[in-house]
Design goal:
Layout: H1 8-14, E1 20-28, H2 34-52, E2 59-61, E3 65-67, H3 73-86, E4 91-95, E5 110-112, H4 123-138
Parallel strand pairs: 1-2, 1-3, 1-4, 4-5
């Protein structure tokens, strides 16, 4: 569910069920040509579909963090994860279609992105990782 689909008067009722926030990270630098920005957003959408579609009803997708400075990306994403948890989310999943090697994000409960070779995660692996996160949280 997208953040914009939740009306203010619905939130208190839905909050107990929507305990997981999906934080998309595009990871652009601002040096992208228009077609490169389009491709980055399309790739991010495709990776987000691996979570948004099968886990609809428990996850709220927040606006993407599009532009990052490599030197401070980890700190910014981690701070955002902390803030989202302070608003009441039990879990925060950071997701990106770009290899985020070096993205230190200790406040994210799960980071989903391509591996070091640029290989995108499979739907099965994403599903297992999300379910494992929730199972850990339930114990």
């Amino acid at each position: 569910m997208k953040f914009s689909d939740i009306a203010e008067q619905q939130w208190d009722e839905l909050k107990p069920y929507l305990d997981t926030c999906l934080l998309p990270v595009t990871g652009m630098t601002g040096l992208e040509q228009p077609f490169e920005a389009t491709l980055a957003l399309e790739q991010l959408r495709d990776v987000m579909d691996l979570i948004e579609i099968p886990f609809k009803g428990r996850i709220v997708t927040y606006p993407a963090m599009h532009y990052m400075n490599e030197d401070s990306a980890g700190a910014l994403v981690s701070k955002t994860c902390r803030s989202l948890k302070e608003t009441g989310f039990r879990f925060v999943i950071v997701i990106s279609a770009k290899n985020q090697v070096g993205l230190e994000c200790p406040d994210a409960d799960l980071v989903i992105c391509p591996d070091g070779d640029g290989e995108a995660p499979t739907a099965a692996n994403v599903s297992k990782a999300v379910q494992a996160l929730w199972n850990r949280g339930d114990s």
